[in-house]
């Protein structure tokens, strides 16, 4: 049997890591984001992506969407640890519901001339990316989609003169008529 | 304006704080003044309902409040100033978080317009204490203060109890606003701890218990936190089922040490019978404990053949370290009541005679054995003598952290909850002396003893001065072996006997030190003098420093070497060099 590296080591090492998207509904009050982020860093959890904004101003509610990775046991822990925080209303594992839509927005700056420029525009069209800024030697594209689509688009832009990328991180919502 | 001046609920922020304390039934607080809390101290000066105990260091205030809380079941309250006052509270707050102790800390802050300016005695108190409190608040508007204070008391004491901190800038303390008494709407709607256990899960648990052949009940501090009803129900459950019971360090006293089903404490320095019972059981009922690494030992070899039931009010405790089969989220007392009801109605006491026979064989190994001496006092013997001398008395025990703490847990028998105050999760050296101060404030006529080590006790020794000032007759019973005993034990076992910085050189003369503080100093060297000296210590109605000189090189056994399983305990008679080297092989990297 493998000896665990430490008695504190809680993960079952044989379980593979999974990626989960969590939607966290919180009271929008000072420090709430610091609490959530502090939980992740303090307990050694991963944050792949984090998006936060107030969603219901009159009720002071914010929605935080976190993409995290870990073994099933760790993911379970993360949800419980989030849920027990005082200003947290609900934690929903969007990945487990299997009925959620995830979107991300990216702005991609590409610099180039001649054939590269034409190719970039052609690919942008195929990916339904919009041109939101242009000069004679550059474009800024706006692209929306799931993380994979955006990664793929960025990879394609790289040889065509990719300058920089700004991404929002993942936002997620459930399908169907029911709210969270 | 003129109307408002007659409104009794119009008051300053500082007055609101004192008023809220009174409204929450607080009679004693522990604190230390400073610039950013002067308005609050001014209010304290002008009233007599809340007694303020002046400590000598803010850490002392925190631990005293913890001792007060754990011995009464009520929240402990500490009041400290901004900057260093707040940072000195970090240790007690973390300690209370780890051990689920209800603590309300009020800290002063620099005026709101100076926050962020690196003002004198400014620090980001809510930022620093965020990970070491259950929740904390910075109050920027005096009209929010009443609500926040009431919520603070509710959060600290409800669900899984814990420490909270309210940071109040000085201008908010001076400002006038509207106070209101506690009301339900003061609490976040998002905070609603679950108290009642799920009925289906409870039925599953009862079915498992009723079919058990080799059961064990493993209880923890949650039972004590839940209140006297939970303790009563736990004892009844043991009676009704006839099951053996063990407990964590935090849970001692929930089931009486003299009870016939008692196995002793489990875990790293638990008894052989408790750990073997845990390892070989087929059904485990964990009540209000959290499968901490000091309990489980090696996790992949922890009680491999058992079905596990886990009752806990905190869902994040479930499946954190050990996967369980029947989790029940709820308050221990509430769930135990439901389990008992279903068990009594639908199940009968399982026949576990052969299990008890097996346990009797483990007990016969006498794992707490030590060899007494006529020449030197063995630390175990000192604790046993102390226990005998205080048996039947109204006694509260606190400890520091180290070997003496483990010996106290092994050799002092606790019959009731709330009688045992020790830093379990965080392992804070220096906890015991200020905790004893807090316990004595709560129970002025009781016998309060801090079982201490010579190294730990020096960490918060200054609180002797507090004890003398308030005529708190605490007894500091120092097992003086002139070492940081537990550090040395690990160096002997894991680091080739290289005793790096674990020898207490230049120890003070504790008798003279006691006298310098205006307390009583006693010293004993010989086993023959021990009982008489303990008697004298108990009869003195003043604070006592008791310097009990014990065998210097005695180590704490039995022991589960770190990284090993419950059935790989090292017993005292086996602890020769060779066996020790073998037992600890590979465990060096572990804590």
Automatic annotation (TrEMBL), chain A:
Reactions performed catalytically: 2 pyruvate + H(+) = (2S)-2-acetolactate + CO2
Pfam families per UniProt: ACT_AHAS_ss, ALS_ss_C
Underlying gene: ilvN
Domain of life (superkingdom): Bacteria
Keyword presence, Magnesium: no
Organism: Bradyrhizobium diversitatis
Xref: SUPFAM superfamilies: ACT-like (SSF55021)
Domain ACT, chain residue ranges per copy: 21-96
Role according to the record: Catalyzes the conversion of 2 pyruvate molecules into acetolactate in the first common step of the biosynthetic pathway of the branched-amino acids such as leucine, isoleucine, and valine.
UniProt name for this protein: Acetolactate synthase small subunit
Record's subunit section: Dimer of large and small chains.
EC number: 2.2.1.6
CDD domains registered for this protein in UniProt: ACT_AHAS
Listed InterPro entries: Acetalactate_synth_ssu (IPR004789), Acetolactate_synth/TF_NikR_C (IPR027271), Acetolactate_synth_ssu_C (IPR019455), ACT-like_dom_sf (IPR045865), ACT_dom (IPR002912), AHAS_ACT (IPR039557), AHAS_small-like_ACT (IPR054480)
UniProt keyword annotations, A-Z: Amino-acid biosynthesis, Branched-chain amino acid biosynthesis, Transferase
Pathway(s) per entry: Amino-acid biosynthesis; L-valine biosynthesis; L-valine from pyruvate: step 1/4; Amino-acid biosynthesis; L-isoleucine biosynthesis; L-isoleucine from 2-oxobutanoate: step 1/4
A molecular-function term among this protein's GO annotations: acetolactate synthase activity
Similarity-based family: Belongs to the acetolactate synthase small subunit family.
UniProt keyword Amino-acid biosynthesis, yes or no: yes
TrEMBL record, chain B:
EC number(s) stated in the UniProt entry for this protein: 2.2.1.6
Pathway stated in the Swiss-Prot or TrEMBL entry: Amino-acid biosynthesis; L-valine biosynthesis; L-valine from pyruvate: step 1/4; Amino-acid biosynthesis; L-isoleucine biosynthesis; L-isoleucine from 2-oxobutanoate: step 1/4
Xref: PANTHER family: ACETOLACTATE SYNTHASE CATALYTIC SUBUNIT, MITOCHONDRIAL, THIAMINE PYROPHOSPHATE ENZYMES
Pfam families for this protein: TPP_enzyme_C (PF02775), TPP_enzyme_M (PF00205), TPP_enzyme_N (PF02776)
Keywords tagged on the record: Amino-acid biosynthesis, Branched-chain amino acid biosynthesis, Magnesium, Metal-binding, Thiamine pyrophosphate, Transferase
Domain Thiamine pyrophosphate enzyme TPP-binding: 401-548
InterPro entries assigned: Acetolactate_synth_lsu, AHAS_TPP, DHS-like_NAD/FAD-binding_dom, THDP-binding, Thiamin_PyroP_enz_cen_dom, Thiamin_PyroP_enz_TPP-bd_dom, TPP-bd_CS, TPP_enz
Cofactor(s), by name: Mg(2+); thiamine diphosphate
Stretches assigned to the Thiamine pyrophosphate enzyme central domain: 202-337
Catalysed reactions listed for this entry: 2 pyruvate + H(+) = (2S)-2-acetolactate + CO2
Signal peptide: none
Superkingdom, taxonomy of origin: Bacteria
Cofactor note: Binds 1 Mg(2+) ion per subunit. Binds 1 thiamine pyrophosphate per subunit.
Name of the featured protein: Acetolactate synthase
Family, per entry: Belongs to the TPP enzyme family.
Residue span(s) of domain Thiamine pyrophosphate enzyme N-terminal TPP-binding: 11-127
């Amino acid at each position: 049997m493998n000896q665990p590296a430490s008695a504190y080591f809680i993960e079952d090492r044989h379980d593979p890591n999974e990626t989960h998207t969590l939607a966290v509904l919180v009271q929008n009050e000072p420090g709430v984001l610091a609490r959530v982020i502090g939980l992740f860093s303090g307990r050694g959890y991963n944050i792949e992506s984090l998006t936060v904004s107030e969603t219901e101003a009159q009720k002071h509610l914010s929605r935080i969407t976190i993409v995290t990775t870990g073994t099933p046991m760790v993911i379970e822990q993360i949800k419980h640890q989030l849920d027990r925080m005082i200003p947290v209303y609900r934690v929903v594992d969007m990945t487990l519901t299997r009925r959620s839509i995830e979107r991300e927005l990216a702005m991609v700056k590409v610099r180039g001339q001649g054939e590269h420029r034409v190719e970039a525009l052609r690919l942008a069209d195929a990916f339904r990316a919009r041109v939101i800024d242009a000069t004679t030697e550059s474009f800024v594209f706006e692209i929306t989609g799931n993380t994979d689509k955006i990664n793929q688009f960025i990879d394609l832009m790289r040889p065509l003169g990719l300058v920089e990328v700004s991404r929002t991180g993942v936002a997620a919502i459930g399908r169907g008529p029911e709210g969270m | 304006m003129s109307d408002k001046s007659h409104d009794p609920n119009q008051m300053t922020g500082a007055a609101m704080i004192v008023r809220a304390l009174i409204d929450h039934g607080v009679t004693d607080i522990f604190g230390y003044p400073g610039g950013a809390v002067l308005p609050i101290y001014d209010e304290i000066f002008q009233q007599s309902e809340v007694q303020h105990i002046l400590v000598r260091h803010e850490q002392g205030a925190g631990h005293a409040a913890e001792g007060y809380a754990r011995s009464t079941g009520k929240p402990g309250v500490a009041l400290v100033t901004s900057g260093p006052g707040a940072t000195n509270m970090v240790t007690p707050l973390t300690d209370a978080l780890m051990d689920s102790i209800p603590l309300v800390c009020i800290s002063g802050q620099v005026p709101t317009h100076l926050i962020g300016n690196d003002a004198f005695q400014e620090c980001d108190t809510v930022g620093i204490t965020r990970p070491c409190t259950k929740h904390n608040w910075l109050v920027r508007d005096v009209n929010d203060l009443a609500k926040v204070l009431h919520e603070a008391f509710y959060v600290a004491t409800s669900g899984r109890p814990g420490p909270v901190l309210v940071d109040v800038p000085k201008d908010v303390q001076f400002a006038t606003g509207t106070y209101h008494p506690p009301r339900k709407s003061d609490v976040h709607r998002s905070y609603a701890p679950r108290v009642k256990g799920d009925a289906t899960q409870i039925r599953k648990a009862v079915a498992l218990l009723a079919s058990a052949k080799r059961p064990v009940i493993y209880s923890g501090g949650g039972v004590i936190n839940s209140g006297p009803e939970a303790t009563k129900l736990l004892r009844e459950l043991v009676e009704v089922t006839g099951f053996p019971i063990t407990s964590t360090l935090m849970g001692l006293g929930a089931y009486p040490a003299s009870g016939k089903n008692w196995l002793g404490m489990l875990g790293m320095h638990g008894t052989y019978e408790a750990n073997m019972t845990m390892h070989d059981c087929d059904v485990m009922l964990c009540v209000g404990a959290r499968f901490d690494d000091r309990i489980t030992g090696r996790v992949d070899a922890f009680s491999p053949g058992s079905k596990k039931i886990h009752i806990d009010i905190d869902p994040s405790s479930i499946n954190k370290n050990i996967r369980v089969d029947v989790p029940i989220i709820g308050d221990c007392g509430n769930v135990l009541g439901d389990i008992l009801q279903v068990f009594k109605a639908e199940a009968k006491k399982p026949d576990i005679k052969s299990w008890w026979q097996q346990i009797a064989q483990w007990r016969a190994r006498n794992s707490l054995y030590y060899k007494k001496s006529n020449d030197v006092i063995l630390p175990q013997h000192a604790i046993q003598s102390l226990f005998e001398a205080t048996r039947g008395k109204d006694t509260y025990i606190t400890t520091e952290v180290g070997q003496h703490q483990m010996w106290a847990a092994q050799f002092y028998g606790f019959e009731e909850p709330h009688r045992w105050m020790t830093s379990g999760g965080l392992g804070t050296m220096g906890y015991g002396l200020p905790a004893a101060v807090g316990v004595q404030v709560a129970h002025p006529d009781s016998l309060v003893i801090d079982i201490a080590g010579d190294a730990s006790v020096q960490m918060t020794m200054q609180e002797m001065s507090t004890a003398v000032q308030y005529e708190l007759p605490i007894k500091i019973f120092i097992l003086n072996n002139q070492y940081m005993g537990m550090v040395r034990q690990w160096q002997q076992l894991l680091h080739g006997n290289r005793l790096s910085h674990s020898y207490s050189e230049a120890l003070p003369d504790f008798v003279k030190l006691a006298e310098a503080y205006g307390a009583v100093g006693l010293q004993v060297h010989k086993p023959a003098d021990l009982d008489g000296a303990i008697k004298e210590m108990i009869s003195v109605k003043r604070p006592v420093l008791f310097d009990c000189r014990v065998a210097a090189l005695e180590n704490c056994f039995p022991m589960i070497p770190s990284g090993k399983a419950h059935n790989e305990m090292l017993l005292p008679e086996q602890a020769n060099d060779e066996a020790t080297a073998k037992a600890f092989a590979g465990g060096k990297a572990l804590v």
